[in-house]
Design a protein that fits this description.
alpha/beta, six-stranded antiparallel sheet, five-stranded antiparallel sheet, 27 strands, globular, binds flavin-adenine dinucleotide, binds iron/sulfur cluster
Length: 1019
């Protein structure tokens, strides 16, 4: 490294922050966010950096952006465009007005099917676009791994590249035009040179300047710009004399949009992009090549690309082992393996006809024989098997990212691109470099284009910065030796702008500065990126800067499992509680969020319903994790977790646990919310409504004695309105109706089948089932008995201080942050049920959020080994029945129902605990019943969330995302199945009126099929 590096360009809010906010608020329709919470949430991206912006604008329209740029220009405030903020290099971190295009600027402007082009606003997400294109048989093929959240504006900004770039190229090869706004307000369409004749005078002058630079630097460009496909550092100064292996345009003409691609928002703001589309591949095959060593795999990559694959992706031994260690993936990865390979390459072929990719798969088999590895290819022609294997590769990375402790895999040389003939040597030498610095990395991804991903594990609070520079120096020397690109996928940002001069030399670096100044003479567009950058190891810009301290917190739940340290070289983790976290592990749990932005996805799965409904960063899992992290660092004052900022960020979290399962690093916001609410209620107390709901298990026995009185709220005219005004219960909702015929008060509950010692199953009847839907518990008893099990109903232990009060999991207390009260309930449950477990009985429950707390929250309440034992033997009824069915022990006499279809909405906690397959299995036992799971996130009711007047609209929005449209579309004779009491209530409430729908618990479906059997005999 030789280039001198500029000092950080930090804008100080004193230069006009307050005034700016006021002016913006007057001028724009969108949200102007200058509060500490918002600025903190936009201070980071998926990099290691953190710089607080001056403020944030979430524009409603292009006019908003135009107005904001004008105001910023007058006030001398930089602007920073942002999409999903999933950049790994710090591109979207800066002291500027951040303009978040992802919420409103997401219009797909026009599709030309014949010409295969489409226009999009910058906030359109790639998956959204490809979902739109699919029915037309088209797709946009720059398939980045972050396709579920990455925006087209951000992808163009970074010149992003997908797994199949060898077949389709990078963004620069697929953007046809960009309609842009310059920092002086000039608007122009940048596109093919021949179409830019009518551009405004300012742009004409700009283009003349660019051409002059291009001509002057022609030879230097030829000398210094790496000739690899994957080169995304610096500006695309070679638009006039392309150096890329793949031409930028079909006819090799100049397209000035390509200069904006990869410019990281430093030249102009893109308001619309015109993209080149490709036909959706009709057929795919996959050959998995098994190699004895990683070296051999890398050595072979250059031979494999001669077969014209669409992807060649590496999975190394570490990742194979990670995948095999996960029961969900073991079978899939095992199908791809031959023996114990050191690495595998996933080689994909696509084609218009079935024969084409198949014949190239045969060529692959033959080639491996020629290369001395006969019999090393697993041929996968089945689309499902291929998809499953691609998923495993992604999941393996996720497991790697979930390493606990302060050492984390850090992205700074993650995407160096080297010519394929040097790949093996590069991997080998870099592995040795890691070892010399006491660390290691897992290798994966794009072998086809010489861009292997690897992140050494570094502790960025301690010696990480020193090691990062040392490793970067050695890696860069190798990249130079091999004539590769230091930035082959992720761009420059804060981590690599200082390397631009190193890569391209001082002369081109100056030319880059000239380009920047031509576009943006005042230096207002995302300053400090690509040119005039800061040092990569400037610790003052780190997310954990020197002096970072986590505030001490006395936590209510046990977070010690996160309070560990790890050994970067071996991966060994210290025992729980030894990590030195003053917040007892809660701080480190929060810091597991690495800001990759996956919680902004809209595809399958649950995470994150409140983001899906609002599209607000604040209401995403990432926004919440950042808020908690900043609170713990003292950013929101002494109240920290109890502060209003934290409370507001958590307000719309429905505790669905979607993130617990789907966040790559396992951020469990539902649990974190309990902790934060605990701190909040200790500092501020609880509002009356929250207290009422929390203590429901205590007053429920009284309400059940006088249900007519308890139900007055929904029977007496005007009472609902009073309850809204007084307590905040939405008058638009009916509350669950109290019943006198509770399950536990019924004869059915008092008749056990066997003395305790002989019971096979102990039925844990939760508060909601007992008081509001006792028929579900009766159905469970009937089903279990019909299957021949001896059933006992769970009751409080004899020594319980309240032996007659029903057991309760404590869910309502947890939802209010009353952890001590929840622990008291949990202790009662453990005391009552552990003896049953010890006698060999299975504990079976009906309500997912109640039963599954025995497997989740009970384990962090300090209840010791007893809770662990209980958790291992607690099942939802469908899990129990599916298990028995699998073991060949289930004999249920079921007969076909009049209905032949069931629409299944799984409760979020069922999804989080992998219990959905059990439900479909059990429903599948009913003869002739086909089951269709709804691809839905949270129903939006989420315990008491949807009953709250303040949450009503968001609650309905969540339901309308997927669940309600599916329910409405279901034929009238379709059974709607939902195991969650609040899900059933939401469905009933929002389909009320003519043609209204009722959902039922799975056990009721089984009960009906049993009854028909009793009436009719086998169907
Ligand atoms: C786990 C993980 C995997 C990844 N995998 C890949 C991968 O496979 N391939 C890949 O290429 N990248 C990958 N990335 C990096 C990143 O996801 C991509 O670069 C992505 O395309 C960025 O999109 P975004 O919407 O998050 O953009 P942002 O990060 O928000 O912005 C990116 C850049 O574009 C600029 N920008 C945004 N909008 C505009 C606009 N309207 N006008 C002008 N400039 C604008 C920003 O200022 C910034 O400089 C990965 C990142 C992570 C965390
Ligand atoms: S919460 Fe999880 S999914 Fe969301 S950004 Fe953080 S690590 Fe990624
Ligand atoms: S628990 Fe659900 S709503 Fe809350 S952050 Fe996680 S995914 Fe989002």
């Amino acid at each position: 490294m030789s280039e001198a590096v500029a000092q950080p360009l930090v804008f100080h809010a004193s230069r006009g922050g307050g005034d700016l906010a006021a002016r913006l608020a007057r001028a724009v329709e969108g949200d102007v966010l200058f509060d500490a919470g918002s600025r903190g949430r936009y201070a980071t991206d998926a990099s290691i950096y953190q710089v607080e912006p001056v403020g944030v604008l979430v524009p409603k329209s292009v006019d908003d952006v135009r107005a904001a740029i004008a105001i910023c220009r007058e006030q001398g405030v930089p602007v920073l465009a942002r999409g999903a903020g999933s950049s790994q290099c710090g591109q979207t971190v800066g002291a500027a007005l951040v303009i978040d295009c992802s919420k409103h600027l997401s219009r797909i402007a026009g599709l030309d099917r014949e010409g295969m082009t489409v226009g999009v606003e910058p906030g359109v997400v790639l998956d959204q676009l490809n979902g739109f294109l699919k029915p037309h048989g088209l797709w946009f093929p720059v398939d980045v791994s972050t396709s579920a959240q990455a925006t087209l504006g951000g992808m163009a900004g970074n010149n992003s590249c997908g797994s199949r770039s060898i077949a389709y190229g990078n963004m620069v090869h697929n953007v046809l035009a960009i309609d842009a706004i310059l920092s002086d307000g000039t608007q122009a369409r940048f596109g093919p040179e021949k179409e830019m004749g009518g551009a405004p005078a300012r742009v004409g002058e700009l283009l003349r300047g660019l051409r002059a630079i291009g001509e002057r630097e022609h030879d230097e460009i030829g000398r210094k710009v790496p000739k690899v496909l994957r080169r995304v550092g610096g500006y695309n100064i070679d638009v006039c004399c392309p150096q890329s292996e793949r031409p930028y345009t079909a006819d090799e003409s100049v397209n000035f949009a390509h200069l904006l691609v990869g410019s990281e928002g430093t030249l102009a703001w893109s308001r619309e992009l015109t993209l080149k589309l490709a036909p959706l591949p009709a057929h795919r095959t996959l050959g998995v090549v098994n190699f004895p060593t990683l070296y051999k795999a890398m050595e072979s990559a250059r031979h494999l690309v001669a077969l014209r694959p669409s992807a060649v992706e590496l999975v190394d031994r570490t990742m194979i082992d990670l995948a095999r260690g996960n029961p969900a993936f073991r079978a899939v990865i095992d199908r791809a393996l031959i023996g114990e390979p050191g690495a595998i390459l996933l080689v994909e072929f696509i084609g218009e006809t079935r024969a084409d990719p198949l014949s190239r798969l045969k060529d692959l088999v033959a080639l491996m024989g020629d290369l001395g590895l006969p019999g090393s290819v697993v041929e996968m022609t089945d689309a499902g098997a291929q998809r499953a294997l691609w998923d495993v590769r992604k999941a393996g990375l996720n497991i790697m990212m979930s390493l606990r402790g302060d050492g984390k895999p850090v992205s700074f040389i993650e995407d160096c691109a080297v010519p394929l003939e040097h790949l093996a040597e590069y991997v080998d030498r870099l592995t040795q470099v890691f070892a010399r610095h006491g660390t290691r990395g897992t290798w994966y991804a794009h072998a086809s284009v010489g861009t292997l991903h690897v992140r050494p594990i570094l502790d960025m609070r301690r010696d990480g910065a020193t090691k990062m520079r040392a490793i970067a120096e050695e890696a860069s020397a190798m990249v130079r030796e091999y004539k590769g690109a230091f930035s082959g996928e992720h761009g420059d940002g804060l981590v690599r702008s200082e390397w631009v001069g190193w890569q391209f030399g001082p002369r081109l670096n100056r030319a880059f500065e000239e380009i920047k100044d031509l576009f943006d003479p005042a230096g207002l567009m995302n300053p400090g990126k690509i040119v005039r950058g800061t040092r990569m190891d400037d610790a003052s810009l780190f997310r954990f800067p020197p002096g970072h301290r986590t505030q001490p917190v006395k936590t209510a739940l046990d977070w010690t499992a996160w309070d560990v340290q790890n050994d970067a070289a071996t991966g060994a983790v210290t025992p729980p509680g030894t990590g030195g976290d003053p917040a007892g592990g809660f701080g480190k749990a929060v810091e597991m969020c690495n800001n990759n932005g996956h919680c902004r996805k809209f595809d399958a799965g649950t995470m994150c319903p409140s983001y899906r409904a609002t599209r607000d960063e604040e209401h995403s899992t990432r926004g919440r994790a950042n808020t908690l992290r900043l609170a713990l660092s003292g950013r929101f004052g002494a109240e920290a977790l109890a502060s209003d900022t934290v409370h507001a960020a958590l307000d719309l979290c429905v505790s669905c646990k979607g993130c617990r399962r789907e966040c790559p690093t396992g951020v469990d916001m539902a649990k974190m919310k309990i902790e934060a609410l605990h701190q909040r209620q200790r500092a501020h107390g609880l509002p009356l409504r929250a207290r009422l709901i929390a203590h429901l298990p205590r007053w429920a026995p009284w309400a059940a004695r006088v249900p007519w009185l308890a139900n007055l709220r929904d029977t007496l005219p005007g009472a609902a309105q009073v309850s809204e005004a007084w307590l905040g219960f939405s008058a638009r909702r009916a509350l669950p109706a109290w019943r006198r015929d509770t399950f536990l008060g019924s004869a059915g509950a008092s008749r056990d089948d066997a003395p305790p010692a002989n019971a096979d199953v102990v039925l844990f009847v939760d508060t909601f089932t007992n008081y509001f839907e006792p028929e579900n518990a009766h159905a469970a008893v009937s089903v279990l008995r019909a299957a021949g099990y001896r059933v006992q109903v769970a009751r409080a232990a004899v020594a319980d201080t309240e032996p007659s009060r029903p057991l309760c999991c404590g869910r309502t207390y947890l939802a209010a942050g009353l952890v001590d009260e929840a622990k008291a309930e949990a202790r009662r449950v453990v005391a009552a049920l552990l003896p049953c477990v010890e006698r060999g009985a299975a504990i079976v429950g009906l309500e997912p959020s109640c039963l599954l707390s025995l497997r989740d929250e009970f384990l962090v309440m300090g209840l010791g080994e007893a809770a662990q034992r209980l958790s291992e033997n607690a099942f939802l009824i469908e899990e129990f029945l599916a298990r028995e069915h699998r073991a060949g022990r289930l004999a249920l006499p079921l007969t076909a129902l009049p209905q032949t279809r069931a629409l299944l909405h799984a409760h979020c906690h069922q999804k989080a605990f992998d219990a959905v397959t059990a439900t479909t299995t059990v429903l599948g036992l009913v003869p002739g019943l086909s089951v269709e799971p709804v691809e839905s996130s949270c129903c939006g009711m989420a315990g008491s969330f949807g009953y709250d007047a303040a949450h009503y609209d968001v609650s309905v929005k969540m339901a309308e995302l997927a669940l309600l449209p599916a329910v409405r579309a279901a034929a009238p004779d379709t059974l709607i199945v939902a195991d969650g009491t609040s899900c059933r209530h939401q469905i009933a409430d929002l389909t009320r009126g003519p043609g209204g729908r009722e959902a039922m618990h799975v056990v009721r479906v089984l009960e009906r099929a049993l009854e028909r059997h009793a009436k009719q005999g086998p169907g």
